Amino acid sequence: MKGIVFTEFLDLVEQKFGLEMVDDIINQSDLESGGIYTAVGTYKFSEMLQLLQHLSANTSISIDDLLLIYAEHFFSVLKESYPGLLDTYKDPIEMLSSIENHIHVEVRKIYPDAELPTFDVIEKTENSLVMIYKSSRAMHHFGLGLMNKTFEHFNSKATIKIEKIREDGTEVMFIINKN
Questions:
Q1: In this protein, which residues make up the domain named Heme NO-binding (predicted)?
Q2: H or E segment at 177?
Q3: Which of 23, 100, 141, 156 is most buried by its number of CB atoms within 10 A?
C-alpha cells in the first residue's frame, strides 16, 4: 500500500482526534515500519488495518465509518493535488465509470507499483452505474466515500447501494442512481 495513504490517514487522525491519538494508535500497533511513513514508500496493508482497528477501539467509531471519513479527506487531497484530473469530467457518472481506464492509469504513472482495486463497469446509463469492486483488501467503504465526494464535487446527489458479493467485502457491487 502506498505511503501517501498512510501519511494522509495520520494527518486526518491528527486533525480530527489530536496528535496524542496518532501516538496512541501507533504505539498500540505492531508496525514493521515503526509508524514512520513517506508518501512514496510502500507499506503492508496489515499496518493500515492495525491503525484503523486501534482508532476504532479508541473512538468507538466503526472501521467502515472511519473509512468513509478518511475518503472524504483523501478526496480533498486529490482535488488539491490533481485538479486537472477532476476537470477532465463534466459528470460524476462519467468520472466514476472511468476509474479503471483513466484514473487508475494516471495513478500508476505516479505510483507504478500501486496495488489498486478493480472497478468493472457492468451497466451504465446517463443516470445510473453498476460496478463491481474487487480488492484483496476490504476497503469498499473508502471507495464509497470517494464516490460520495465525487457527486458532491459535481453538485449532484446519488443513492449508492452496496451489495456484498463476497462476505469478507473483497468483492462488492456498487449500484449508483443519480437523483
A1: 2-161
A2: strand 171-178
A3: 141
